[in-house]
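Structure first, sequence second, as always.
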């Protein structure tokens, strides 16, 4: 009888172990299914990310080709861009100076720039001599002033900027000394 009881106890333990083993096996199977689903989702995300990378790299390559073709078609483009930036800085500077000097009275004279037919005040002549750039409003210049300004720029070696529309300096022509200009 003791042998039968031992056998019954062992059989009960065996059944319990088999039941626990089945539960663990089911939990592991569920984890494997969930992990496989996560891996599949990550692989899909990876494919989308790779496609986006390829698309971006291709677009960048096309842009580089387009830029190279544009630079080849327009020699001196880099210099033109640099001059454009310099003009923007100078426009802001002129705007600031215009607002600073507006309404101020210098030694009893209004702050307007004298025409070239009038003698220049010493302070104005000194500032023109120290300037990196001479900016002239073409709409307010007489024909003679236009040529005298060009001659002044040639003699002093200054860059001469003729402003067609002084409001905001929207249209600007830049002429190097020595260039032949039409009025």
């Amino acid at each position: 009888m003791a042998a039968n009881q031992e056998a019954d106890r062992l059989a009960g333990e065996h059944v319990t172990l088999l039941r626990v083993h089945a539960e663990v096996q089911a939990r592991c199977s569920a984890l494997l299914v969930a992990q496989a689903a996560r891996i599949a989702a990550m692989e899909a995300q990876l494919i989308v990310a790779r496609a986006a990378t390829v698309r971006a790299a291709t677009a960048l390559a096309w842009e580089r080709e387009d830029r190279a073709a544009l630079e080849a078609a327009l020699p001196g483009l880099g210099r033109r861009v640099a001059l454009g930036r310099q003009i923007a800085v100078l426009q802001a500077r002129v705007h600031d100076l215009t607002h600073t000097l507006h309404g101020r009275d210098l030694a009893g004279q209004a702050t307007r720039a004298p025409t070239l037919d009038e003698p220049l005040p010493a302070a104005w002549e000194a500032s023109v001599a120290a300037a990196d750039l001479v900016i002239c409003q073409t709409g307010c210049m007489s024909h003679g002033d236009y040529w005298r300004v060009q001659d002044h720029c040639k003699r002093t070696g200054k860059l001469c900027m003729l402003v067609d529309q002084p409001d905001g300096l929207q249209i600007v022509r830049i002429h190097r000394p020595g260039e032949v200009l039409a009025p």
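Margin note: Strands lie at 133-137, 159-163, 172-175.
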